[in-house]
Amino acid sequence: MRHRNILVPLLPLALLVPVAACDQQINITASERLESLLPSASDYPDGYEVEAVDMAELDGTSVSTTQFDSIQPAECAEVMNEGPADLPAGAAAEGAGQVAVDSTVPSVYTYVLVSGDDEEFDFDPSAYEEMIRTCSTMTVVSEGIEMEATLRSDDSPELPDPGGKFVMELSAEGLDMAMWTAWGQVEDVHFVLIRMDMDTGVSPDRSLLSSECEGDFRAIRECQERVTEELAQEAMDEADTEFDAFLDIALRDLEGGL
């Protein structure tokens, strides 16, 4: 778990406070104030084990704005590398975060709070809109695996202004994954909440397929594909509802504590 706890938070940190130079170091220190604004372990959905992110291990880490080896089209890679914020060299911030893992799904939540000098943080929400527009469909490579990906904006009634939400779906070699991301700012605190489901594929029960699908071979195959797609969409909808419910809890703790 230790290796995962160090690496998983890098994605929300990069989405939240990236700089133009991909090799820029993150200068971030732990904050008791921000730690007090994090939800409790019992606030997470059932089945998740929660651990704190050790900001001391992230301080000074060199990180790019994505964890992908390459992205196509090139316009999308450029937008992702630019990111939504521009920090001057040596800018410092304080932060706190959590990683929650459900190994049975498997699914990972990462929640990070960051606060810094408002005069140093040049945060541009329109950069997220540009990323979604430019990267609506893309091909990414991660650890040598090529994946087809889609990116779309989504709504959530829980989000503050400024704030937003988007969903990324990835598929490769028969494996389907999905990532929900919500970001925003409450007073001087920037937040990012991510849920990554590592396998969103669905294998319908044989008895369900037998009861739903009849006819010749072609009709049965088409029916099976339809049932599989419907079940996968239902699972995505349930995950989205669960994500929004936890986002509501996290933001109530954040807003109530400031």
- Terminal Cα separation, in Å? 31 Å
- Regions with pLDDT < 50 over 5+ consecutive residues? 1-23, 61-65
Major beta sheet, specifics? 10 strands, mixed
Q: Over the alpha carbons, how many angstroms does the gyration radius reach?
A: 19 Å
Number of helices: 8
Total beta strand runs: 14
User: From N to C, what is the helix and strand string?
Assistant: HHEEHEHEEHEEEEHEEEEEHH
Gross morphology is globular
**Can you give the helix content as a percent range?**
25-40%
Which strand-content bin applies to the residues? 25-35%
Query: Helices and strands: which structural class?
Result: alpha+beta
Could you report the average pLDDT, rounded to the nearest whole number?
78
Structure description:
- The structure is a single chain.
- By secondary structure, the protein is an alpha+beta fold.
- Helix content is 34%, strand content 33%.
- It is built from eight helices and 14 strands.
- It has helices spanning 2-7, 10-16, 32-35, 55-58, 74-82, 126-134, 206-212, 217-257; strands at 25-26, 28-30, 49-52, 61-62, 70-72, 85-86, 93-102, 107-116, 122-123, 137-142, 145-154, 163-172, 175-186, 189-197.
- Strands 2, 3, 5, 7, 8, 10, 11, 12, 13 and 14 form a ten-stranded mixed sheet that branches. Strands 1-4 form a two-stranded antiparallel ribbon.
- The model is unreliable at 1-23 and 61-65 (pLDDT under 50).
